[in-house]
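@channel sequence for tomorrow's demo:
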Amino acid sequence: MSTAQSLPFDRDILRHRRDRAAATLAEADFLLTHVREALEDRLTDVNRRFSRIAVIGAADGSVARMLAARYAPEILVQIELSETMAAHARDPKVFTLVGDEETLPLADGTFDLIVAPLTLHAVNDLPGALIQMRRALVPDGLLIAAMLAGDTLAPLRDAFARAEMETVNGVSPRVSPMADLRDLGGLLQRAGFALPVADRDTLTVRYASPLRLLHDLRAMGESNALTERRRVFLRRDTLMRAMEILAADHADADGKTPIRFDIAFLHGWSPSPEQQQPLRPGSAKMRLADALNTAEHPLRDDESH
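structure tokens (generated this afternoon):
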């Protein structure tokens, strides 16, 4: 198997998905809207004016427009994998580049804020992409990324697996694997970020028709881009059986099917000597017991392990 075939995501087909979604994203922009509003809310808590900003994943250009209105930065760049989507996102206040998250066209030490809204969950080398973004930041620059993770689309994955077993006697990957939130903070640390934080925001959308979910995924460019996907059209009986399972086994009492989108938010700072540093072991000037106003009870040697 070649190296390209062994990678989980087919970046060419992903580019094609985003090309097609350029004209349809407005039909299913609830995820992007949710993330954009969450990003703006999180930036409110950061007492700093950013003047050199990069957005990784232009989508409809709304994240860049929000940042332009908020900071009026000297430099604002948005990078988009799809040339068609980049054309739709262009704005006179924003410099738009066509580029890949896996090989970012960003100079080292250029930006004080990098935002990556809903793009990193489909890169083949997430640690590598994070390292590139950290290098593109100035010392004490901030990265905020939002990516699908956790139990996103778990009912759809279950329905397709069971339907394929019934109709074609085999299972193929239909829904992308999602990163575990517990691993993402460690990836930030491995990529060299200081003060790394990973937390989760969950959005649940209730569908009267499961087929509408597939329409929304296609409209936002999030349909199957896995390298190991079946290279034939999905059989109608498999599709209909999957939708039956989704409605029968995952619907609420009112017949609507709740679909959960777990959005992991990653925060990390480019290291700087001016940042708050942890104290050296043994350098404390006060005992913990004194701070807690309690008695200290040293462990015996046989209790210390």
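heads up for whoever presents: The chain has one domain: 7-272.
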